[in-house]
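Q: What does the predicted 3D structure of DNA recombination protein RecO look like?
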Amino acid sequence: MQLTAPAIVVAARPHGETAVIVRAMTEGHGLVAGYVAGGRGRALRPVVIPGNVVEIDLRARSESQLPFARLELVESRGPWLGEPLPAAAIGWVTALTATALPERNAYPNIYRALAAVLDAICHAPSARGWLQGLVAYEALLLRELGYGGAPPPAEAGLEPLLEIFAAHGPLLERYLLADRRGDVMAARTMLHERLGRMRS
């Protein structure tokens, strides 16, 4: 396998003393995984942050081998990880993507939607500016993977969007996240609690 493409980092797991196993979303090849030597070092640690846009170069001798990956940072989400609400939203959408999608299946609509919702989270003045996109992204994942999921109304207010967000939770847990490693829903619960504070 050889691949060079723009990608969005959606997960990074330590491997051994210094390496990282990265999972990244690409437009043409879907979710891909690679071994990043030195990924926990000073130079690469800021690059392998979930949400970051990178140029990924994957190389493997066979289809069964985990590819070696080289990453070049294109856009960092690091500046927003110090803000509780954007950090929770970035953590949730990347964890959901990394956990729900099968590897090496192209989902160009999901790739473009993920890029758009991450941009909105980082650049909208407040969560009111990106919550609709996040709810629409969850609905798109459900729809693309065959479990329905209607997009939110175009001009939905905060309260209806929070209700739709709450309603998506059981569907995501039942259909997309059942029997998956890790408590991915904990990231969503944290986000839900932080969004709920916007009511006050």
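A (community wiki): The structure tokens above were generated from the sequence. Helices lie at 84-100, 108-123, 131-144, 158-176, 185-196. Residues 28 and 106 are 5 Å apart (CA to CA).
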